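Service request form, structural biology core

Requester: graduate student, group of Dr. S.
Request type: structure prediction, single chain
Budget code: on file
Notes: please return the result as structure tokens.

Sequence provided:
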Amino acid sequence: MSFLLYLQRRKLIALVCVISIINVLLLMNFALHEKRPLSLSINTMEDTGKIRVKAPVQQKTVEWTGCQGGSDACSDNTFKNWRSQAAAFCDNNWIGFAHDFAYVRDIVVNRSRAEGPDGGEDMTSRMNQQEKKEFYIVIKGFLNIPCTSRLPEYQFNGPKNHLRSWLRSLVPTTRIQPTTVESTFTIAITRYEYVNLYHSMTDFYSAYLMMRFFNKTAEETKILFVDAHPKGSLDPVWEAMFQSYTRIGHFKKPILYKELVWGTWGYGSPMYVLNKDAPRIPLLEEFRTFFLKQHHVNDTRALNCKQLSVLFLWRHNYVAHPRNPSGTIQRKILNEDELVREISTAFPTYKVRGEQLDKFDMKTQLQNIVNTDILIGMHGAGLTHVVFLPKHGGLIELVPRYGRMMDHFSSLVKWRNLHYERWRNTNPGDEVSDFRTKVNPLAVKSMITQIAKKMCR
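Core staff response, request fulfilled:
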């Protein structure tokens, strides 16, 4: 009888063990396939900017320094928001930040899975090319990462954000053998209005923020263009700012990137999305200093109220991209010579001049701007140069009767605490052919006087 009880107890113990093993397997399966976003515990140490992203047991702990180089970087709300909204996937090989950008390790980029031309061609060979042909269509296998758990289930901000298609193209690493390994920290971007100074500046600025967030220097940072635009007038700026840039179209075989950031898209840049509403944007003055330094431009101008420097920024027709072979642009000034003459007479001790800055390389443009106290120009991308005016500077923005006016430049003025005046034409007779506007010299004189008073009080 006792022997039978012994056997029953053994069977019961065995049954309990089997049930326990099944429960463990079910829990493991649930952890791997659970549909909710991965829950992370994030510890931030504000004194060093060091971040630790703690993932489940099967994942490693990722650590990097994200805001060294000054208290502004560490305490900025935008950086804090990015750090507090980190989500890790694929054994921490893929980390998304606030649904704006991502950091990826050991990623293979397979050019053969991106449909489109190489890019970088001479613009004259691409005249009248449709803009959509300059953006790649990426398909499954374009991006490949090591992933023993699950691929990211993530949603980037912006319904037309190209990072969404990048994510859809992501697959676990296969047996693709890259011919090149890139060990340098690299920021991958898709440029939209790539020859427009304002929209390019949002890209320059976002790349700078990525560099600072991941505690890199310009010499440690490369840029990867994931677009097929022909050569543009602003391409050399990327090379001046960072170690180098390259185009994905120029890689015919897969390439492995040890550290690749999926950069914020241009319309998601803090310079763009925080337009008008925010009291400030992160590290704008630091970005200005960095940009000038990378172009070897000295910023030493001191305010001399008896000899202010006034620069009129001219807009003239020019061919910037394949969609405008005639080169016709809007918002031009009809009476350029009259304005320079009248303002020079009204302010005889001031240095008054007019320039079409986009004729020059970026270094020459910047040298003109840092030696200007008051910048005057029609609403247009060239006014982005307010970023580089001296800290005491001012902007007079001129606006024709037609068209919609954005707050891009008044926002930049506000964020830099500069001086600002705006003139808008109200006389239909002062709008003439070829999108030219006659600007009232007396109105400009009055606004220069107002800014000079604020500047020199």
